[in-house]
Amino acid sequence: MSATRDLSQLGQSVWIDWLSRDLLQSGDLRRLISRHGVSGVTTNPTILERSISSAGGYDDQVEALTEFGLTPRAVVEELAATDITNAAIELLPVWQRTGGRDGYVSWEVDPTLAWDARHTVSDVRRLARRIYMPNVLIKIPATEPGLLAIEESIASGYSINVTLIFSVERYAAVAESYLRGLRRAADAGLDLSTIHSVASIFVSRLDTSADALLDAQRSSLARARRGRLAIATAKLAYRHSHAVFEGRRWEALRARGANPQRLLWASTSTKDARYRDVRYVEELIGPDTVTTLPEQTLDAFLDHGHVAETLQQDLEHAMILLADLEALGVNVPRLAERLEEEGIADFRRARDAAMRLAVRRERALAA
Questions:
Q1: Are the C-beta atoms of residues 204 and 230 closer than 8 Å to each other?
Q2: What domain count does the chain have?
Q3: Range of 114's domain?
Q4: In CATH, what number is assigned to the domain containing residue 34?
Q5: Residue 139 annotated among the catalytic residues of the structure
Q6: Among 12, 80, 83, 139, which one carries the catalytic annotation?
């Protein structure tokens, strides 16, 4: 078996963190599902912009859409909807086989709405109706207003991928929003078994930002703490998830058919060449979680990844590390807040860049 199938044997789902027209038309997604046990796809505005810029497979659709007078924003949404629909079709057998646990493709709400709960909920409804398939997760950023949108969306019966989580505290708030949403859905008589959710913690971005702060201190103690915040955060979040999805409160919801919200490791590519290229995969292996792999990271893990359950190891060291970072002047809550703002800004820039690309392609085709 491949290394990714070994992960599945340990209870960790493997999703890929890219989507493109070429991936679909070449049959590569189908091969990843059948050969390597890939059971989901995540995407975001940055991935879409990169796909449009690097492949010509979108030209025919861009030309056809612009002939109908669609705006650049509408054109980009149609391109994304086509890819997401086709990916969902490829993954539907996985969704059926796993009883809705896996087989998902994610679609992000408009990033300009990240601090507007009411309009985020409206966009969730719109996107869910736009692609009316059971295995599409709508992505909501875990901003403060996003917490309200998560609860409202879950209460309305939608399945949600909560994205851009950078701290244990914010994950705890996300899990609480999920539970409140489930309680409201149950009170409304909805079938809780049809509601699914993942909570996505972005790991490598945490280390990149924390390492920059530690490097500025130029001390041996600071150097010794490099590259450790992300894994510590993920492990402590995983420990918290066990506390959340146990006990009388959760058992009452589970009796109504509720599914636990799984943690998902996002941004797993290594940004620092001094680190092992599969460290964010190897060191975060554990049951009832999802790991998402960019193409390069997937290839590296298939080539030389080691599989062993690591997620519950060294929890004491993870707690000590956070205390050490605080003593070194690294304000983790403030760092998480900045990363959240930067993540939203990056998605907005990527969406705007995708629209500009669509316009340029249309003009080039017309010429």
A1: yes
A2: 1
A3: 3-202+233-312+345-366
A4: 3.20.20.70
A5: yes
A6: 139
